[in-house]
Amino acid sequence: MSDVQSNRAGDGAAPGSRLDAVVVGAGFAGLYMLHRLRQLGLSVRVYEAGSGVGGTWFWNRYPGARCDIPSMDYSYSFSPELEQEWTWTERYATQPEILRYLEHVADRFELRRDIQLGTRVTAAVFDEATDRWAIRADDGARVSARFLIMATGCLSVAKTPDFKGLETFQGPLYFTSRWPHEGVDFTGQRVGVLGTGSSGVQVIPVLAEQAAHLAVFQRTPCFSVPARNAPLDPAHASWMKANYPEYRRRARETRAGVVMEGDPRSALEVSPEEREREYRARWEQGGTGFLATFSDVMRSPEANETAAEFVRSQIRATVRDPAVAEALSPRGYPLGTRRLCVDTRYYETYNRDNVTLVDVKASPIEEITPRGLRTRSAEYALDSLVLATGFDAMTGALTRIDIRGRGGAPLKQKWAGGPRTYLGIAVAGFPNLFTITGPGSPSVFSNAIVSIEQHVAWIADCIAYLRARGLGRIEATAEAEDRWGAHVKEVADGTLYPRASSWYIGANIPGKPRVLMPYAGGVGVYRKTCEAVAARGYEGFSLSRGG
């Protein structure tokens, strides 16, 4: 009998609110987690702050929003029937199409009845007497659950900039991460965009086609490669559907969760002419596969610089104004150590007469005024402001909830010096808590769906293991957590990632500890590690019968 069927109250919860598991978030991770837990016969409730399912793809509706992983890779593999019945229309799917896909999944597997929308979890406290989580939501609801599973996403808490005068701006203010569902018409307006990361790179070309004038305020230029997006080739789609089982198997063994052929040679062992040909071929092919052109692009500073200079040469060849091209050319950090952007005519946009690039590193923003923005050297009249200012990545969605483990210890306090986890799945001192694609796992360094499915399956198998043995409690040991943290750092130090002030290390959030949060060892190696931990009876965890 499941706990909810027993209808015992306890833990301050109302009768009928005792659950086997609570899942926070109804995006890719939450939907699949719900499906797997249901298959185990568990009572489950998913809490979702949005008014619809979709997670990231429910909120990020800005013009031009699309995935930077090919759509046929960026999809579930757990259901062969789903793989065959769904037809993608573009190489890189747009936000509306991805959201339709997730809505289809929710309906096809009848998931909605266990999802509570418009409800944000605000607190969760572990009760050591009962080995259960007492969970509170913003509507005052209280529930109790044996297992608490965080499917909150790595990029779900927007960073709000602290520019002086922001609250005085009299025009509309839009966050790319919280775009109005009804859309926005910028026709005839003077629009300012703050931020040139992945969201900015996607939204800027679209807004430039609408606005009377677009001012782009850039602090740090990004490296961006062309998507070469196009309608999905029916022959390719048919081949993928026919070969999905083997293709997915190969993807799970790769570094990034996507099958892409890389040159095993060093960029430094080929002639300059051959190196140029290889980079150009990848550039014309489009997509993040550019990083795999040679084997040492992300390990050797010298090899990386050859790839970085190729991108800068393409910017110079595209942007007509040499001064603008130079301002758009990234320097001072290795290619790929800040998120590599994938664009559609991003650099070409700066050839338009109605687009101005403002280098705010050279002339910092001093104030947002009621009618625009003032830098150290000029003032810009604006009708609307668009903030593409990024996220409090990976930890923000977890620390904004008051999660308290054994002894009432807050997770936020435990992570004050940087996130510490075991495998990116569990946290010492927080029994029966699982984090899907948490810090210390490949997460944002991979095709997110591959990493999500691996974590969900591991968590479901773990819970099944516990139930089959009459165990009610599992907790990562401090020793295992320390060993994993040391390993994550050792792997990171063997790459170029720590050399950039990126959101990967929390550098975009004032006061956030500088720690490379994702695991850089690759999804294939990581999967084998997780499988070995489970095969050895969940090595590194303390298991007990529980309350």
TrEMBL record:
Keyword vocabulary terms for this entry: FAD, Flavoprotein, Monooxygenase, NADP, Oxidoreductase
Q: What GO terms are given for molecular function?
A: cyclohexanone monooxygenase activity
- Enzyme class per UniProt: oxidoreductase
EC nos: 1.14.13.22
Q: Which cofactor names does the annotation list? A: FAD
InterPro entries, A to Z: FAD-binding_Monooxygenases, FAD/NAD-bd_sf
User: Organism's domain of life?
Assistant: Bacteria
Task: Tell me which family the UniProt entry assigns to this protein.
Answer: Belongs to the FAD-binding monooxygenase family.
What PANTHER family would the database entry show? L-ORNITHINE N(5)-MONOOXYGENASE-RELATED
Please report the name of this protein according to its UniProt entry: Cyclohexanone monooxygenase
- List the source organism: Sorangium cellulosum (Polyangium cellulosum)
